[in-house]
């Protein structure tokens, strides 16, 4: 999973931040493997995300749904690698400390977890990076 942030706006009155991020999630699905030679050399295709299993990852700090454009497709390659890339606009709860304004620094969390499996620990394999 990777996230690139490309805009942030804060609202001291409501103690929220609105952020636009580009969310990238890649996983391997052993049921989506094929031999390209059997299918005219096709090595990648796009599928409706409703047609396959997709991890149900949410942001814990969401307080309001943003204006994220729906992207109902994922890319699958012949080795079973699935790519789910989508923009997300998130309105998040954040305790803003404005006492040093305009020289204040804010520290807000962006916590990703499973919606259905909230009681189970999630394991992230590979690198997770965040860029601001």
From TrEMBL:
Catalytic function, reaction form: Ca(2+)(in) = Ca(2+)(out); K(+)(in) = K(+)(out); Na(+)(in) = Na(+)(out)
Domain Neurotransmitter-gated ion-channel ligand-binding as annotated: residue spans: 11-119
Keywords on record: Cell membrane, Disulfide bond, Glycoprotein, Ion channel, Ion transport, Ligand-gated ion channel, Membrane, Postsynaptic cell membrane, Receptor, Signal, Synapse, Transmembrane, Transmembrane helix, Transport
CC terms in the record's Gene Ontology section: postsynaptic membrane
PROSITE patterns: NEUROTR_ION_CHANNEL
Record keyword Chloroplast present: no
Topology in the lipid bilayer: Multi-pass membrane protein
Name assigned to this protein: 5-hydroxytryptamine receptor 3A
Lineage of the organism: Eukaryota, Metazoa, Chordata, Craniata, Vertebrata
């Amino acid at each position: 999973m990777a996230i690139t942030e490309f805009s942030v706006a804060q609202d001291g009155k409501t103690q929220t931040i609105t952020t636009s991020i580009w969310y990238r999630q890649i996983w391997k699905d052993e049921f989506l493997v094929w031999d390209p030679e059997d299918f005219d050399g096709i090595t990648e295709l796009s599928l409706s995300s409703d047609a396959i299993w997709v991890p149900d990852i949410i942001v814990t700090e969401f307080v309001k749904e943003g204006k994220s454009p729906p992207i109902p497709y994922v890319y699958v390659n012949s080795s079973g690698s699935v790519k789910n890339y989508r923009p997300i606009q998130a309105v998040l709860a954040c305790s803003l400390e404005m006492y040093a304004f305009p020289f204040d620094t804010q520290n807000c969390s962006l916590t990703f977890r499973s919606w259905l499996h909230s009681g189970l620990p999630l394991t992230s394999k590979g690198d997770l990076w965040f860029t601001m």
